[in-house]
Amino acid sequence: MTVSLILPAAGLGTRMTRTAEGEKKQFMLLDGVPILVHTIRKFIAAGSIREIVVAARPEDMASVQDMLRTEPVPVPVRVVTGGDTRQESVENALRSLRPPPDLVAVHDAVRPFIATNTIRAVIAEAAAHGAAITGIVPVDTVKQVGPPQSGSTKIRATIPRDHLVLAQTPQVFSYRLLVDAFAAARADGFQGTDESSLVERLETVEVRVVQGSEHNIKITRPGDLEIARLLLRMESEKSA
Predict the structure, then answer these.
(1) Which of 50, 193, 225, 228 gives a 20 to 30 Å CA spacing to 183?
(2) pLDDT tens-digit series, residues 96-108
């Protein structure tokens, strides 16, 4: 079973694309190491990955390549041109996979705290069923509301949490299924928020959900960096 990993790192990132000093979030350092490299290390530790493809903006490709040269990675790592959206970036990376793998795993470049056992579990689930994602059940009560009126909204319903999942990554799919999902989205002009939303539209497989973790955060806001530093200390103490 061959697995290729796609790391989209080219999105515009409107919430925190750059620090005050102008550094993009995936290049920011945690304990002196770029977030992107921390993320790659988790997948290398989990095993099963045949190759890694990082989708970066054209102006960042040289920086990413230089960054990866300093990190000993036992599998091929390539950098391809991404796009203005996650969907464009992942599709560009998907087209570059030659020969096609059995499975494609897509993971946010700025989720460096994914557990290795979760990576293995979601890959195994996708191998068995064709499609699987990582997710967690929300802890807060979720309300459905109507359109804003005079600066406020009205509650329309309370949605049972046991029927909800907050999607995380990695998301893993059979190669052919993911190619078909992107082709259908492109033909329809559909823009999804994640790869699973594209696959769900095909209605050919049921996407399985593997239990994730609240530690598997996506570093998108300035305050996330403080949480990330705390999580890194916790990981270091656990492994000591």
Answers:
(1) 50
(2) 999 999 999 999 9
